[in-house]
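User: Sequence in, structure out. Go.
Assistant: Echoing your sequence, followed by the C-alpha cells.
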Amino acid sequence: MTFERDGEQGVRARTQLRGEFQGWQGIAHGGVALALLDEAMAQAAGFSGYRGLTASINARFRQPVPLEQPLDVEGRVKWMRRNVMEIEARVLDASGVVLLEGEGRFVAQGNIESARG
C-alpha cells in the first residue's frame, strides 16, 4: 500500500485485500482491517515528520470490509502534545461509505530527519 499526502496533516492510499485475508466468507478478518487503520495512522505520523509507535487504538466497525474490492484508507493527525500524537483513520469503500474508523495515540520517537542521519 502506497500512501500519499492528503492535506496538511493527512494521508491516503487505495488498496484491495486479497482472499487470503478472509475472516468470514468474502469479508476481511478484523485484525487485518485494524492493521489498515494502524498503518494509516503510522503513515500520517511519518508524513507529519515523526516516527510514531502505536500506544493505543480504538476502532468502530461500521460495515464489513470486503475482499477483492477497492478500498480507500485515510489517516490524519488531530493533535500533538509533547511526544504524544492523536491520529484518526478510516477505511472506506469505493463509493465513500465508511466501513471502519478509529482513533489512536502514538508516541513520537523523534523526527524523521534525525532518524535518517
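User: And one key feature?
Assistant: The beta strands are 4-5, 10-15, 50-61, 71-81, 84-93, 98-111.
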